[in-house]
């Protein structure tokens, strides 16, 4: 079934799968127990892109806010919030709040305003849900007005219960650098539970295709391309041809968008910057609408989206341009990631707690994570073009 909006899955009334329903009940039991014992608790929801982590959070915040008005509920008069650092996701949640009697826009915040507000008011929240927790800052950031060292630490200081979703393969900046090891160290001396979501809901493809996408996005591994009549996976030698085919899919089915790795110049100075390839030139996304997400505006078919506008969203078809920082190593038959060619300089802001060697490894992981985020957007099709000639030839040869 084709999706009509990029965010339809997040409606609180969306029917949960058996695994999601089990998780939902576990979250409610965990929260009720920790509220009753007044013991701080953390609950971590893990799962790859497309496994429905945000779907569960949306249903949970709606259930909690309804229960907070019910005198017979263990959640009566609780003060609960959903936090997310991703501005496009925050728009989505606020759109949802406008349609639900039990939700208010003030229930949804970015982490820094939440931390600063509760610090100033000297109060505690009850249950705090954190979507895309892999985007939480792990160092101070003047641009985001965050003066402490770790957003998750500060959220825990002001919350009785914290429920967060986490995927180490979606970390996109050094200032929010997390991995499973760092998270395990954070949780080690705190009461916590973990639940792993495994069922893929976004990519409607056979297991071999899903494995192909996962191997490329998490290991940089190029496997033989599977033949899959259920998923339209194509490799293009020409970016312009890819774009024309994608426009046709949008005309036929809607929600087809072009995205690219952050390998093309871009500055926040009001000027227009372009993603280019031989015979191809389109502007980067200009996310000017404060209320409607980039993927849901028809005009954005004529732009190129980035990881920052598309992470967390569903498309029917996605076209991806892999930029110059993504090459090919024939010796390992894997992607060759070149940080010096990556244009998202904000993502690579240096941190003192990493050696030069560690920083290089993290930079390569960030580039790979950005590829992984983009690869997992399309429900029914993925069109791929590589700027690097060697990588393009290898992809076509698959």
UniProtKB/TrEMBL annotation:
Pfam families tied to this protein: SLFN-g3_helicase
Domain Schlafen group 3-like DNA/RNA helicase: 42-388
Single GO MF descriptor: helicase activity
Keyword terms of this UniProt record: ATP-binding, Helicase, Hydrolase, Nucleotide-binding
The organism's place on the tree of life at top rank: Bacteria
Protein name, UniProt field: DNA/RNA helicase domain-containing protein
């Amino acid at each position: 079934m084709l999706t009509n909006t990029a965010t339809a899955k997040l409606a609180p009334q969306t029917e949960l799968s058996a695994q999601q329903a089990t998780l939902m009940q576990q979250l409610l039991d965990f929260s009720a127990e920790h509220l009753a014992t007044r013991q701080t608790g953390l609950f971590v929801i893990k799962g790859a892109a497309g496994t429905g982590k945000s779907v569960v959070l949306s249903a949970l915040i709606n259930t909690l806010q309804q229960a907070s008005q019910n005198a017979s509920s263990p959640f009566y008069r609780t003060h609960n919030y959903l936090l997310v650092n991703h501005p496009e996701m925050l728009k989505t949640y606020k759109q949802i709040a406008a349609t639900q009697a039990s939700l208010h826009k003030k229930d949804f915040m970015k982490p820094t305003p939440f931390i600063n507000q509760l610090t100033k008011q000297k109060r505690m929240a009850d249950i705090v849900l954190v979507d895309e927790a892999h985007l939480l800052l792990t160092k101070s950031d003047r641009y985001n007005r965050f003066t402490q060292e770790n957003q998750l630490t500060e959220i825990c200081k002001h919350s009785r219960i914290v429920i967060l979703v986490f995927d180490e393969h979606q970390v996109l900046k050094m200032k929010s650098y997390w991995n499973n090891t760092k998270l395990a160290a954070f949780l080690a001396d705190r009461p916590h539970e973990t639940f792993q979501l495994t069922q893929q809901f976004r990519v409607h493809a056979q297991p071999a295709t899903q494995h192909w996408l996962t191997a490329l996005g998490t290991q940089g591994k190029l496997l033989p391309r599977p033949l899959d009549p259920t998923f339209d996976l194509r490799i293009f030698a020409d970016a312009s041809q890819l774009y024309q085919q994608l426009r046709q899919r949008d005309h036929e089915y809607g929600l087809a968008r072009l995205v690219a790795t952050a390998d093309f110049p871009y500055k926040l100075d009001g000027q227009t910057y372009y993603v280019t390839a031989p015979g191809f030139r389109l502007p980067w996304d200009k996310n000017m609408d404060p209320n409607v997400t980039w993927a849901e505006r028809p005009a954005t078919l004529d732009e190129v989206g980035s990881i920052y506008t598309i992470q967390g969203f569903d498309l029917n078809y996605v076209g991806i341009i892999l930029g110059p920082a993504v090459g090919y190593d024939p010796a390992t038959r894997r992607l060759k990631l070149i940080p010096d060619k990556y244009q998202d300089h904000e993502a690579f802001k240096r941190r003192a707690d990493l050696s030069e060697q560690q920083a290089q490894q993290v930079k390569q992981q960030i580039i790979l994570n950005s590829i992984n985020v983009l690869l997992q957007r399309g429900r029914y099709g993925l069109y791929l073009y590589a700027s690097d000639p060697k990588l393009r030839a290898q992809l076509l040869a698959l």
